[in-house]
Amino acid sequence: MESNTPIRRKITLSDIAAGCGVSRATVSLVLRGSPLVNRKTRARVEEELRRQGYVYNRMAANLRRRTSSGIALVLNELANPFFAEFAAGVDEVVGEAGFVTLLGCTNESPAREQAVLGSLIEHGPAGIILSPAEHSDASQVLAAVGAQTPLLLFNRELGGSLPEFAHWDRLTLDNQHGTRLATEHLIARGHRRIAFFGGHRDSSSCRQRHAGYAEAMQAAGLPIEPHWQVECAPTRLAAAAQTPALFAAAPAPTAAVCYNDAVALGLVLGLNQRGLHPGRDFALTGFDDIAEAQLSAPPLTTLAAAPRARGRQAAELLLQRLREPQAEPRHTIVPVQLVIRESSCAPSDRS
Amino acid sequence: MESNTPIRRKITLSDIAAGCGVSRATVSLVLRGSPLVNRKTRARVEEELRRQGYVYNRMAANLRRRTSSGIALVLNELANPFFAEFAAGVDEVVGEAGFVTLLGCTNESPAREQAVLGSLIEHGPAGIILSPAEHSDASQVLAAVGAQTPLLLFNRELGGSLPEFAHWDRLTLDNQHGTRLATEHLIARGHRRIAFFGGHRDSSSCRQRHAGYAEAMQAAGLPIEPHWQVECAPTRLAAAAQTPALFAAAPAPTAAVCYNDAVALGLVLGLNQRGLHPGRDFALTGFDDIAEAQLSAPPLTTLAAAPRARGRQAAELLLQRLREPQAEPRHTIVPVQLVIRESSCAPSDRS
DNA sequence: CTGAAAGCGCTTACAG
DNA sequence: CTGAAAGCGCTTACAG
To answer: Residue A59, CB, less than 7 Å from strand C?
Structure first.
């Protein structure tokens, strides 16, 4: 609650009014571009604003008008290039609309998420874009932000049940359809023993991606061995370390649908360590199309979500909500695009 | 100047005061943790705060106290992983100190930088951390932010001369020393024909990195051929496209110090296209140690700047400045660490 | 220990 | 077309 910092005296409306012999009201009308003000008066005031180097105090104006010019952006992880691109997209649209982005990172900790939301909400943002931390809970979030402030949920579902009266919009990727495409692609190339690799099953995006994989396998009448479904943290390191689990029992898979690109790149490392050449004797796909994907060896077949465009979209959805507070909550599901590169081009006949 | 959005009625101090029969002043004292309030009164007020779901309006408080709880973070490029990590570091420290981060991206455009700074300054931030856009000019920045708000310059120098009365702190990487280390490393491995590849000479960091290279070459008594100094945009694509320029004339270099990792990875591509194997028949180094560096083929020898730590450091320097507004402006130069990986291990005898 | 009053910098009916 | 007055939600001397 503490920890602010004094700032030095600044020029105010009163200084300008005094400086050119009009009332504060008139200066305010000039600032807000009102047509009521006489041209000559306006010119005089504008000259004085320039002369004294006036800077508008938007916080004071917001207080008086009971408005807000901030949009809070709360991310589970900013260092991840996917979210960095997303944030850049959000900030573009937020800025174009004359708002300012209030940033908060939670580092995947629901406790930090509570703290961050609590701090941001005190600044009275017009709306919130939240990409929840893993295991973040709907009722906790509601307690932190209240039901007044419009909120857009991005990327993940919240745990617990979303209270009816919280009209939150959602923007999510079509995870399930994405991995279904990837799996069908591998099947079309002749693979029959396909693994699902990486991620934690308690994350909603992982469950959805796994479901798309399982769906495609079932539709093709292909069985799924238990040891083809390996969980691990969604990082390169963890994925490299877990690679042996795929080959712990016979029959070994000839291909893998990975939870995301980080996991896929880790699997590439793990395969290399076993003397396998991904793209030649093992096929794999990722998810996200991060910058590294097209540069890795081999280049990664993956699912592109266009994170910057998603950021712009998220901001636009939120701005729209601000315009129509009463409209029905919307759930926007974004299709995801299969980008075919060499990593999935291994033949399946290496059985 | 327009474009705000109405928010619904919220619980205020007056509601709480009325709700438990005390004055607004008393409630305020409770909120700010004053020891003046009777225990029983405090308990009653706190209960009422909870009951009504009060949320503190920090903007109103800031206005009255003439304080600010915002730190503006203005970045030339957020999508770049280096700056994403940096931003995450800044936000950590800013949040820990009870401030909130106001984000603005400029996408390397001085015009957008002006707009972003203009918008942020209206929100009265306590301080600003600015990583300038290329070609951003000191007097422009000063015009946008004024001399009142403490500003910390990160990463790049501003064009034009910095007015004396703007006491801006600076935090920069020791670019020159970094590339000197890289060049010396290549020389120690026996290379004598070493190129400096990528970047634009009108960026201050590029000039500094080139100077470190030239310094090491000169110290070793090695000549520098004109065609070993190739400029290009600091992207993979541009670097790949410019690779042939290194080999346009004899004698060809056997190694290159690259402006940054993106350029180095592009050079890797360009070399591959010529049938050369970096790390085997050509040695190269990068700068930044981005995540891809250790994963590329071959892994990249590079200079690590630890961007998240730099972000924390930048925020701490700014907070310190807020505590001591009158202290002398500081220029902090951060050493950068040589991380040796396979890309620089090509022997030099392929002449 | 508590309350009445003034004021942060703005905006907006309402008169004139 | 312009000004006097009230008020956004808070804080802080100042009395009592």
So the answer is: no
